[in-house]
C-alpha cells in the first residue's frame, strides 16, 4: 500500500444524527480529530427514516467530494438516538415513532451505496471519549453519561463497549431518571444549578452503587457548564467533563467503523 493510500485508509466519514441537526465529518482515526470543518444540516421535519436518509446522503456526498475524503466505497459510521441492535432501532423515545423496529442499516446502505455501521449516539460518544478523550488510558469500568433531551449512557469496560446500556431509564424515587435529571428537565422545571445538583447527586450515587465505576465522564451540551454542578457532587468515583464536546458522536461513529472493519489507525 502506497504511503498516501495508507494514510487515507485511516480516514473515515462519521455522521451524527440529532434531534435538531445532523452533523458529519471526516475523522482521522490516528488522532481522533476531524479533518477540516464539519458539515451540518437541520434535521428534516418530519424526521422520518427516508427524510433523514436523504440528509445523511447529502452530507456524505459533500464530504466525499473533498480532496482528503476516504475511498468512495469505504464504510460510513452513523449514530442514532435510540437502542441499536444489529442495525435495527429498538427504541424511539425522542424521535419519530416510525423509527421503532426499523432497519436503519439496510436503508442507509442502499441509499448511500456503501457499507454503513449504525451505533447508538451515547455509545458513540463513549467510545470516542475512552479512546481519545477524558477516559483515555483508564482501565476497568468507565461510564459516559450525556445530559441532554434525555440521559444517554455508554458502558465501557477495559476499552470495550457494552452496547445499549440505557442508564437514563433507571427508576429513581418512582420516576424515570431522565424525566427529572436531564438537561431539558432542568430548564423545564426552572431549577437553579444548586437544585439541579441535588437531583444529579441522587442519580450518580445510585449508578455508582450499582456499577462501582473507575470514572464518570459527563457529556452533552450542558458539559460546557460543568463547573456549575460537578464540584457540588460528592462521590467516591472521579467525575469529569467530556473533552470531545460536539465532535464526540462523529468521532465515535467513525471509530465504530474502524472496530468492525479492522481499519488502520
Instruction: Tell me the structural class.
Output: alpha/beta
Mean pLDDT: 93
Q: Main sheet, how many strands, which sense, barrel?
A: 5 strands, mixed
How do the SSEs run, as a string of H and E? HEEEHEEEEHEHEEEEEHHHEEH
Q: Which parts are unreliable, with pLDDT below 50 for 5 consecutive residues or more?
A: none
Percent of residues in beta strands: 25-35%
Proportion of helical residues: 25-40%
**Tally of helical segments:** 8
Q: How would you describe what is shown here?
A:
This protein has 265 residues and is α/β, with parallel strands linked by helices. The protein is 33% helix and 26% strand. The protein has eight helices and 15 strands. The chain is globular.
What secondary-structure arrangement, pairings included, does this model have?
Layout: H1 3-8, E1 11-17, E2 21-28, E3 33-42, H2 49-64, E4 76-80, E5 84-85, E6 88-89, E7 102-103, H3 104-112, E8 116-120, H4 121-132, E9 141-147, E10 151-157, E11 160-162, E12 171-172, E13 175-176, H5 177-181, H6 183-188, H7 193-211, E14 215-219, E15 239-241, H8 248-261
Parallel strand pairs: 1-4, 4-8, 9-14, 14-15
Antiparallel strand pairs: 1-2, 2-3, 5-6, 6-7, 9-10, 10-11, 12-13
Helix pairs in contact: 2-3, 4-8
Amino acid at each position: 500500500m502506497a504511503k498516501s493510500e495508507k494514510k487515507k485508509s485511516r480516514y473515515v466519514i462519521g455522521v451524527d444524527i440529532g434531534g435538531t441537526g445532523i452533523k458529519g465529518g471526516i475523522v482521522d482515526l490516528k488522532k481522533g480529530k476531524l479533518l477540516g470543518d464539519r458539515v451540518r444540516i437541520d434535521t428534516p421535519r418530519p424526521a422520518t427514516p427516508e427524510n433523514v436518509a436523504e440528509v445523511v446522503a447529502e452530507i456524505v456526498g459533500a464530504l466525499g467530494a473533498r480532496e482528503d475524503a476516504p475511498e468512495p466505497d469505504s464504510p460510513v459510521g452513523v449514530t442514532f438516538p435510540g437502542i441499536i441492535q444489529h442495525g435495527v432501532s429498538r427504541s424511539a423515545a425522542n424521535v419519530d415513532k416510525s423509527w421503532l423496529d426499523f432497519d436503519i442499516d439496510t436503508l442507509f446502505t442502499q441509499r448511500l451505496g456503501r457499507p454503513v455501521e449504525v451505533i447508538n449516539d451515547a455509545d458513540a460518544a463513549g467510545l470516542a471519549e475512552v479512546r481519545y478523550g477524558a477516559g483515555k488510558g483508564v482501565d476497568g469500568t468507565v461510564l459516559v453519561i450525556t445530559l441532554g433531551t434525555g440521559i444517554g449512557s455508554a458502558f465501557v469496560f477495559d476499552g470495550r463497549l457494552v452496547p445499549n446500556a440505557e442508564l437514563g431509564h433507571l427508576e429513581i424515587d418512582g420516576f424515570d431518571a431522565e424525566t427529572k435529571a436531564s438537561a431539558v428537565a432542568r430548564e423545564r422545571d426552572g431549577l437553579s444549578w444548586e437544585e439541579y445538583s441535588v437531583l444529579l447527586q441522587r442519580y450518580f450515587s445510585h449508578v455508582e452503587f450499582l456499577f462501582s465505576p473507575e470514572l464518570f465522564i459527563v457529556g452533552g451540551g450542558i458539559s460546557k457548564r460543568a463547573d456549575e454542578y460537578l464540584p457540588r457532587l460528592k462521590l467516591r468515583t472521579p467525575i469529569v467533563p467530556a473533552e470531545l464536546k460536539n465532535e464526540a458522536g462523529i468521532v465515535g461513529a467513525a471509530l465504530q467503523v474502524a472496530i468492525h472493519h479492522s481499519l488502520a489507525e
